[in-house]
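FAQ: What does a multi-protein file look like?

Like this. Sequence, then tokens, then the next protein.
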Amino acid sequence: MIYIQMCSTYAPSWAFGGVVRILYGYAGHMAGRVDTWVLAGNLDERQRVVSSGFDDAQNYSVQRYGFLSRRLARRNIHTPSVRMLWDLVRLAKRHKGLVVLHLGELRGAVNLYALLARFVVGRRLRIIHSAFGGLHEKPSRLRAAYDRLLMGPFLKSLDLAIAQNEHEAGEYRQLMSAFGARASQDRISILPLHFDHPTSDRTGWFENGAKAPAARRAVRRALELPQEALIFCFLGRFHPKKGILRAIDLFCGWKAESGDDTAQFLIIGRDEGFEQEIRRHAANSAFPDSIRIITGIYAERFDYFYASDVFIGVPTMFEETMLASLEALSCGTPLLLSREADAPYIEEERAGRVIDFDLETAKAALKEIVGDYERFSRQALATSVHFERGPVLTALDALLSQLTEETVQHHARTPALGSDL
């Protein structure tokens, strides 16, 4: 088997979000098992060409491609060179066994290239799609036109669709039904996102399954955060759909009712054109001096997660699981999530709350977590093991093994089609 990822954006452009980091983790894992390739666009999040040093350091092959339009790329419409398609077909033809192509985008040139490669190579090329929160509807004329032409064929071509949670699996089923891909509905599997532990030293962060008080004080002191205050945090892109404004309203509502004068809310992230609106909303809130907006953070994010008491993620659109929320969980920090950011195990194992958002419900959930904080924090740390790299990537191995076995069985049943398999 040869494993190929094809994507418009890729590591080390971490600011593009969790999709990049998860695909990077998959590739590194698969490289220890099979011949692994990544075919990716060559621009980073600042629209600069990625240097070759990162690619050369990987234990798998990375091929980069320029974009047909840098102007469109700046608008998040990525059109990598058709040479990407040529190289995909060349790799598939050179390898005589099963070719697994893994995609993380729903629309665009990459998806068209996958369809064309399937037409040329045949069903020996197996297509896996991970939704990564990308199934939510974003109406536009361009998307509508694209869907009429290509969405049905693409969904019908999928051999495996990977969802993050039950909600996203349901979104897959609805989308497949809408575009006449009903036969593919049994090809949907749930695989949670995984996080990687930070490379920084976390020695002494935990004792007896909970945050160590001395370590917590030391981390807060290093970050210049108050020692005894309740600290809530959000980390993510500064985007209108991330729910940051209603998170501010939630914090202020809870703070007013609790009477806690020391509580703070840390809003950490990277601007996508919405930072000024966030700052205005915070400045006009009931507690402007209790809200801090922090940018330029990446590796230090685990320190902020550990120093915080509750992670708040309440986006207004369905993005499914937030990778940042799982990283916070690994730091023993319980989660308050809206349904749009659902993650498996959180409600079931009482590692936080997942709610249908309205302000009163959210305040009550926050009060519940704070009121039983030690238990929620311990459960957060215990629950995080479900999302660690090892168990999740072992599950990925199982999915790919099943795909391989089914391919062999299909080949045995249809010997006359051997040239296409």
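And here is the next protein:
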Amino acid sequence: MNDFTDRELLQKQRQSKVLRLRWLDWVKTLASRPWMMVPFFVLCGAFALVWGLRKKFILILNCNALLARVYYYGLSLLLISVFVLFLVTLMVILSTPRNAKKVSAALFQIGLVSYAGTPPELISHIRIRHSDVHQWTFFSLGLSKSTWEKRREDVEDALNFCVVDIRYGGRGERNRNLIVLRAVPGIGGSRREVLYDEEI
């Protein structure tokens, strides 16, 4: 029971770290992609509109002063809670790379997992300007750079690209928990069938 609880706690901590890394990476790219802020402006505008109408909604109920005050503060608290929930959800959606789950699943299928049995998590995927090279950044706690280098061909097959180089991520390439792959699109379709144990 304790082992299960510990694993569950470690998994939650890992997901929290992944979400934070994705969010920080997304914020760094806003300067080159300011249009990504549009959904936030729309959400804030909608919230401001509804927030301004909350008094009118209380007046429609036509209740006594005490109930009106209770409803007013209750509705205000509800609106703030819903706004925060929508804001966090929007942050998660926008900062999560497209096909992040499929990429992790593909790496899991080839057995590229840590001792805890977790595959690397895709933090970001960008195309380098004026080239065909794509940069993939993974949270790879528990998997060393040498492991990625040994499994290079398997990774290329699973993700359908050709790796140009493998390096650490972070400032000055000093973060050993981040692995950065630079790759060019490979030939042929991505692997779609499920791998069984005897195929790994």
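Q: Is there any per-entry metadata?
A: Some entries carry free-text notes. For the entry above: The chain has a mean pLDDT of 85.
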